[in-house]
Amino acid sequence: MTGMTDRRRLRQPLPTRYGSLSDFYGADPRRVDSRELDVGLWWREDADGPLHRAAWVNETGELYLVRLGPLQEGGGEVEVLATVAERDRLESVLEGWREQCGGARSLTWLRERADRLGERVRVAQLKMVATGAATGATLTAATALALELA
């Protein structure tokens, strides 16, 4: 395995987007029957900007946003912001969301918090590779990724 392959495998992908909730649920059958934790209904950037609902899918660990409103204005689009397996970790990072939700720039606040969840995932993946490094190439790739993340 080359250093480039290791680096690509370790990177957390950019937020995943879906055209609709149906597309989102259809892309992974675990989502359909999973319990969800509501994380607010009034996320927005501007006072007159579009509203978004946020929720966390228990079975997949995905924190996602769905844009509310008419389809022709982007309503129904889904964006996966982060993946976190532990509900306690999610609640810890999102502490204070009820006070933020609905306010101006609340969507920025949520995205910044979601980014923290993503950083934790990348660091954990990096540690796993570095710990299990059997070859110099793997260790080199892990070191390069660490420098990229720093």
Total strand count, please? Answer: 5
Mean pLDDT: 78
The largest beta-sheet arranges its strands as 1-5-4-3-2
Distance between the termini: 24 Å
Alpha carbon gyration radius: 17 Å
Strand content: 15-25%
Helical amount among residues, as a percent range? Answer: 40-55%
Number of domains: 1
Secondary structural class = alpha+beta
**Net shape:** flat
> Main β-sheet: number of strands, strand sense, barrel status?
5 strands, antiparallel
The secondary-structure element order is: HEHHEEEEHHHH
Poorly predicted runs: 1-12, 120-150
Number of helices: 7
Structural notes for this entry:
A hairpin with a 4-residue loop joins strand 3 (52-57) and strand 4 (62-67). The chain is flat and about 35 Å long. Residues 1-12 and 120-150 have low confidence and may be disordered. Helix 6 runs antiparallel to helix 7 (136-149). It contains 7 helices and 5 strands, in the order H-E-H-H-E-E-E-E-H-H-H-H. It has one domain. With 150 residues, it is an alpha+beta fold. The chain has a 5-stranded antiparallel beta sheet with strand order 1-5-4-3-2.
